[in-house]
Amino acid sequence: MPTRAGTPAASDPDAREALVAARAQRWGDTSANRAAALQAIREIQKSGITSANGIARELTARRVLTPTGSSTWSPAQVQRLLRAA
Hints:
Helix content is 60%, strand content 0%. By secondary structure, it is mainly alpha-helical. Helix 3 (52-61) packs across helix 4 (75-84).
């Protein structure tokens, strides 16, 4: 099966291993940011803001980092994090 130029073939174990290593190096361990974000989300929910959009706005205003280290939140990120929790 052809792949896009520059995209490692999914069936190549060496390429897959390199991709996993590159992602780990770029993002590192996201569990600390994830835990802090979940704690902040719970506090925001207790204050009465329950929509994903409202929570995302509040997280961004509080400058809480996303699991990957960004300071800008989207409603989809909030929903993913809550589903995974």
